[in-house]
Design brief:
Layout (H helix, E strand, L loop, with lengths): L2 E7 L10 H10 L2 E7 L6 H8 L5 E6 L1 H14 L3 E5 L5 H5 L6 H10 L2 E9 L2 E3 L2 E5 H8 L2 H7 L2 H11 L5 E7 L2 E7 L1 E5 L3 E2 L3 E2 L11 E6 L5 H12 L8 E6 L1 E6 L4 E4 L2 E5 L2 E13 L3
Helix pairs in contact: 1-5, 2-3, 6-8
Length: 290
Protein backbone atom coordinates (compact mmCIF):
# COMPACT_ATOMS: atom_id res chain seq x y z
CA UNK A 1 0.00 0.00 0.00
CA UNK A 2 1.42 3.39 -0.98
CA UNK A 3 1.67 6.19 1.56
CA UNK A 4 1.14 9.87 0.70
CA UNK A 5 3.63 12.17 2.39
CA UNK A 6 4.18 15.92 2.41
CA UNK A 7 7.95 16.44 2.22
CA UNK A 8 9.07 19.82 3.59
CA UNK A 9 12.68 20.77 3.02
CA UNK A 10 14.73 23.66 4.34
CA UNK A 11 16.82 24.74 1.34
CA UNK A 12 19.32 26.41 3.71
CA UNK A 13 19.84 23.30 5.89
CA UNK A 14 23.52 22.47 6.25
CA UNK A 15 23.20 19.11 4.50
CA UNK A 16 20.35 20.49 2.33
CA UNK A 17 20.92 19.52 -1.29
CA UNK A 18 23.80 17.09 -0.74
CA UNK A 19 22.07 13.78 -0.14
CA UNK A 20 18.53 15.01 -0.46
CA UNK A 21 17.84 13.96 -4.05
CA UNK A 22 19.06 10.42 -3.21
CA UNK A 23 16.80 10.36 -0.14
CA UNK A 24 13.81 11.46 -2.25
CA UNK A 25 14.49 8.69 -4.79
CA UNK A 26 14.88 6.16 -1.97
CA UNK A 27 11.59 7.19 -0.33
CA UNK A 28 9.85 6.68 -3.69
CA UNK A 29 11.33 3.18 -4.02
CA UNK A 30 10.00 2.48 -0.49
CA UNK A 31 6.49 3.21 -1.80
CA UNK A 32 5.95 6.83 -0.78
CA UNK A 33 4.00 9.22 -3.00
CA UNK A 34 5.62 12.57 -2.24
CA UNK A 35 4.30 16.11 -2.42
CA UNK A 36 7.50 18.16 -2.25
CA UNK A 37 7.50 21.70 -0.89
CA UNK A 38 10.58 23.83 -0.30
CA UNK A 39 10.10 27.08 1.58
CA UNK A 40 12.46 30.02 1.95
CA UNK A 41 10.76 31.16 5.15
CA UNK A 42 10.17 28.56 7.91
CA UNK A 43 7.14 30.56 9.12
CA UNK A 44 5.33 29.49 5.93
CA UNK A 45 5.47 25.81 6.99
CA UNK A 46 2.36 26.20 9.17
CA UNK A 47 0.26 27.31 6.19
CA UNK A 48 1.73 24.67 3.86
CA UNK A 49 0.92 21.81 6.27
CA UNK A 50 -2.64 23.09 6.77
CA UNK A 51 -3.10 23.40 3.00
CA UNK A 52 -2.21 19.74 2.37
CA UNK A 53 -3.57 18.16 5.58
CA UNK A 54 -6.40 16.24 3.85
CA UNK A 55 -4.23 15.06 0.93
CA UNK A 56 -1.46 13.29 2.91
CA UNK A 57 -0.99 10.60 5.56
CA UNK A 58 2.11 12.08 7.17
CA UNK A 59 4.56 15.00 7.10
CA UNK A 60 8.30 14.43 6.51
CA UNK A 61 10.52 17.33 7.54
CA UNK A 62 13.99 17.57 6.00
CA UNK A 63 15.93 20.08 8.05
CA UNK A 64 17.24 20.84 11.52
CA UNK A 65 15.63 21.77 14.81
CA UNK A 66 14.64 25.25 13.61
CA UNK A 67 12.68 23.82 10.67
CA UNK A 68 10.99 21.25 12.92
CA UNK A 69 10.09 24.00 15.39
CA UNK A 70 8.48 26.00 12.56
CA UNK A 71 6.30 22.96 11.70
CA UNK A 72 5.31 21.93 15.23
CA UNK A 73 2.20 24.11 15.72
CA UNK A 74 0.64 22.75 12.50
CA UNK A 75 1.51 19.16 13.50
CA UNK A 76 -0.35 19.66 16.79
CA UNK A 77 -3.35 21.16 14.98
CA UNK A 78 -3.61 18.54 12.21
CA UNK A 79 -2.35 15.54 14.26
CA UNK A 80 -0.46 14.28 11.19
CA UNK A 81 2.42 11.92 12.08
CA UNK A 82 5.97 13.26 11.68
CA UNK A 83 8.92 11.69 9.88
CA UNK A 84 12.38 13.27 10.25
CA UNK A 85 15.25 13.57 7.75
CA UNK A 86 18.06 15.11 9.85
CA UNK A 87 19.56 17.71 7.49
CA UNK A 88 20.40 20.42 10.02
CA UNK A 89 23.46 21.45 11.98
CA UNK A 90 22.61 20.11 15.43
CA UNK A 91 19.71 17.67 14.81
CA UNK A 92 19.02 17.55 18.56
CA UNK A 93 15.47 16.16 18.26
CA UNK A 94 16.74 13.38 15.97
CA UNK A 95 19.47 12.63 18.53
CA UNK A 96 16.90 12.49 21.35
CA UNK A 97 14.77 10.06 19.29
CA UNK A 98 17.84 7.98 18.24
CA UNK A 99 17.29 8.76 14.54
CA UNK A 100 20.72 8.46 12.83
CA UNK A 101 22.18 11.17 10.57
CA UNK A 102 22.38 8.71 7.67
CA UNK A 103 19.52 9.72 5.35
CA UNK A 104 19.02 6.17 4.04
CA UNK A 105 18.64 4.88 7.61
CA UNK A 106 16.29 7.76 8.44
CA UNK A 107 14.17 6.85 5.36
CA UNK A 108 14.01 3.21 6.50
CA UNK A 109 12.80 4.32 9.95
CA UNK A 110 9.98 6.32 8.31
CA UNK A 111 9.06 3.32 6.12
CA UNK A 112 8.95 0.94 9.12
CA UNK A 113 5.99 2.95 10.45
CA UNK A 114 6.82 2.67 14.16
CA UNK A 115 4.89 5.57 15.71
CA UNK A 116 5.67 6.90 19.18
CA UNK A 117 3.81 9.75 20.86
CA UNK A 118 6.07 12.36 22.46
CA UNK A 119 5.51 15.30 24.78
CA UNK A 120 5.85 18.92 23.75
CA UNK A 121 6.86 21.95 25.74
CA UNK A 122 4.69 25.07 25.50
CA UNK A 123 5.65 28.64 26.35
CA UNK A 124 3.42 31.69 25.88
CA UNK A 125 1.41 29.92 23.17
CA UNK A 126 4.43 28.52 21.29
CA UNK A 127 5.22 24.77 21.21
CA UNK A 128 8.77 23.42 21.35
CA UNK A 129 10.36 19.97 21.09
CA UNK A 130 13.70 20.32 22.88
CA UNK A 131 14.47 23.28 25.14
CA UNK A 132 13.39 26.87 25.77
CA UNK A 133 15.98 29.11 27.40
CA UNK A 134 16.98 32.66 28.21
CA UNK A 135 20.26 34.38 29.03
CA UNK A 136 23.49 33.04 27.59
CA UNK A 137 21.84 30.79 25.00
CA UNK A 138 19.97 33.75 23.46
CA UNK A 139 23.26 35.59 22.91
CA UNK A 140 24.65 32.44 21.26
CA UNK A 141 21.55 32.19 19.01
CA UNK A 142 21.88 35.84 18.00
CA UNK A 143 25.49 35.24 16.90
CA UNK A 144 24.92 31.90 15.17
CA UNK A 145 24.51 32.99 11.57
CA UNK A 146 23.64 30.60 8.73
CA UNK A 147 27.17 31.07 7.39
CA UNK A 148 28.78 30.11 10.73
CA UNK A 149 26.57 27.00 11.02
CA UNK A 150 27.25 25.97 7.42
CA UNK A 151 31.01 26.41 7.81
CA UNK A 152 31.56 24.87 11.25
CA UNK A 153 28.62 22.48 11.61
CA UNK A 154 27.96 21.26 15.14
CA UNK A 155 31.24 22.89 16.31
CA UNK A 156 29.66 26.30 15.58
CA UNK A 157 27.73 26.04 18.88
CA UNK A 158 30.87 25.48 20.98
CA UNK A 159 32.88 28.15 19.13
CA UNK A 160 30.12 30.75 19.47
CA UNK A 161 29.55 29.83 23.14
CA UNK A 162 33.22 30.47 23.92
CA UNK A 163 32.94 33.90 22.28
CA UNK A 164 29.97 35.01 24.43
CA UNK A 165 30.78 33.28 27.74
CA UNK A 166 33.41 35.79 28.87
CA UNK A 167 30.88 38.65 28.62
CA UNK A 168 28.13 36.78 30.51
CA UNK A 169 26.41 38.99 33.11
CA UNK A 170 23.99 37.60 35.73
CA UNK A 171 20.35 38.74 35.74
CA UNK A 172 17.63 38.43 38.40
CA UNK A 173 14.61 36.18 37.88
CA UNK A 174 11.73 34.69 39.82
CA UNK A 175 10.83 31.05 39.16
CA UNK A 176 7.40 29.80 40.27
CA UNK A 177 7.14 26.00 40.20
CA UNK A 178 5.14 23.40 42.15
CA UNK A 179 3.47 26.15 44.20
CA UNK A 180 6.80 27.65 45.35
CA UNK A 181 8.57 30.86 44.33
CA UNK A 182 12.37 31.01 44.02
CA UNK A 183 14.38 34.18 43.35
CA UNK A 184 17.66 33.62 41.51
CA UNK A 185 20.64 35.49 40.10
CA UNK A 186 21.65 33.56 37.01
CA UNK A 187 23.37 33.73 33.61
CA UNK A 188 21.05 31.18 32.01
CA UNK A 189 17.73 29.44 32.67
CA UNK A 190 16.80 26.48 30.46
CA UNK A 191 13.50 24.59 30.48
CA UNK A 192 13.72 21.21 28.75
CA UNK A 193 10.98 19.04 27.30
CA UNK A 194 13.32 16.72 25.39
CA UNK A 195 16.84 15.57 26.20
CA UNK A 196 19.33 17.24 23.84
CA UNK A 197 19.80 20.85 22.73
CA UNK A 198 22.56 23.20 21.54
CA UNK A 199 24.38 20.63 19.43
CA UNK A 200 24.29 17.65 21.78
CA UNK A 201 24.17 19.01 25.34
CA UNK A 202 21.74 17.23 27.68
CA UNK A 203 19.32 19.32 29.76
CA UNK A 204 19.47 16.73 32.57
CA UNK A 205 21.00 13.26 32.88
CA UNK A 206 17.59 11.59 33.24
CA UNK A 207 15.58 13.82 30.87
CA UNK A 208 13.34 12.11 28.30
CA UNK A 209 10.90 13.43 25.70
CA UNK A 210 8.05 11.23 26.96
CA UNK A 211 8.41 11.62 30.76
CA UNK A 212 5.51 14.12 31.01
CA UNK A 213 7.58 16.71 32.89
CA UNK A 214 9.77 19.75 32.30
CA UNK A 215 13.38 19.88 33.52
CA UNK A 216 14.63 23.34 34.52
CA UNK A 217 18.18 24.33 35.33
CA UNK A 218 19.58 27.72 36.32
CA UNK A 219 23.33 28.52 36.00
CA UNK A 220 24.10 30.53 39.13
CA UNK A 221 27.83 31.08 38.73
CA UNK A 222 30.02 33.85 40.18
CA UNK A 223 32.68 34.07 37.42
CA UNK A 224 32.49 33.52 33.64
CA UNK A 225 35.32 30.94 33.66
CA UNK A 226 33.19 28.59 35.81
CA UNK A 227 31.06 27.89 32.71
CA UNK A 228 34.16 26.46 30.96
CA UNK A 229 34.52 23.95 33.83
CA UNK A 230 30.83 23.03 33.51
CA UNK A 231 30.83 22.40 29.74
CA UNK A 232 32.06 18.75 29.81
CA UNK A 233 29.39 17.86 32.42
CA UNK A 234 26.71 19.54 30.29
CA UNK A 235 27.28 17.02 27.48
CA UNK A 236 25.86 14.27 29.73
CA UNK A 237 23.47 16.44 31.73
CA UNK A 238 25.60 15.93 34.86
CA UNK A 239 25.86 19.70 35.43
CA UNK A 240 22.59 19.58 37.39
CA UNK A 241 24.51 17.97 40.29
CA UNK A 242 26.97 20.89 40.58
CA UNK A 243 26.63 23.32 43.46
CA UNK A 244 26.39 26.35 41.14
CA UNK A 245 23.47 24.84 39.19
CA UNK A 246 19.87 24.84 40.46
CA UNK A 247 17.78 21.96 39.12
CA UNK A 248 13.95 21.81 39.32
CA UNK A 249 11.24 19.63 37.76
CA UNK A 250 7.54 20.19 37.21
CA UNK A 251 4.68 20.22 34.74
CA UNK A 252 4.07 23.97 34.85
CA UNK A 253 6.53 26.83 35.40
CA UNK A 254 6.19 30.62 35.46
CA UNK A 255 9.20 32.87 34.99
CA UNK A 256 9.45 36.60 35.73
CA UNK A 257 12.26 39.09 35.05
CA UNK A 258 12.58 42.83 35.73
CA UNK A 259 12.53 43.70 32.02
CA UNK A 260 11.26 41.51 29.14
CA UNK A 261 13.98 39.04 28.10
CA UNK A 262 14.00 37.10 24.82
CA UNK A 263 13.36 33.34 24.95
CA UNK A 264 14.93 30.90 22.53
CA UNK A 265 12.81 27.83 21.64
CA UNK A 266 14.69 25.08 19.74
CA UNK A 267 17.28 27.59 18.56
CA UNK A 268 14.89 30.37 17.43
CA UNK A 269 13.88 33.47 19.43
CA UNK A 270 10.09 33.24 19.59
CA UNK A 271 8.83 34.99 22.75
CA UNK A 272 9.76 37.11 25.82
CA UNK A 273 9.39 37.03 29.60
CA UNK A 274 7.16 36.98 31.59
CA UNK A 275 6.86 33.34 30.54
CA UNK A 276 4.37 30.58 31.26
CA UNK A 277 5.67 27.06 30.51
CA UNK A 278 3.68 23.83 30.38
CA UNK A 279 4.32 20.27 29.27
CA UNK A 280 1.74 18.78 26.88
CA UNK A 281 1.92 14.98 27.25
CA UNK A 282 1.79 12.73 24.15
CA UNK A 283 1.12 15.75 21.93
CA UNK A 284 2.46 14.48 18.58
CA UNK A 285 3.22 11.12 16.93
CA UNK A 286 6.73 10.67 15.49
CA UNK A 287 8.22 7.82 13.43
CA UNK A 288 11.11 6.41 15.47
CA UNK A 289 13.45 3.37 15.36
CA UNK A 290 11.90 0.06 16.43
Amino acid sequence: MSCRALLLVNPHARQGQKGLSEAIDYLKTLGFILIEESTEHPKQLYEVILRYQHQVDLVIVGGGDGTLNAAVDALVETQLPLGILPLGTANDLARTLKIPNSLNEACNIIAQGNLHRIDLGWVNGKHFFNVASLGLSVKITQRLTKEVKRRWGVFAYAATALQVIWSARPFSAEIVINGESVRVKTVQIAVGNGRYYGGGMAVADDAAIDDQRLDLYSLEIQHWWQIILLLPAMRQGRHIHWQSVRSLQGQEIRLYTRKPRPINTDGEITTYTPAHFRVIPKAVAVLVPV
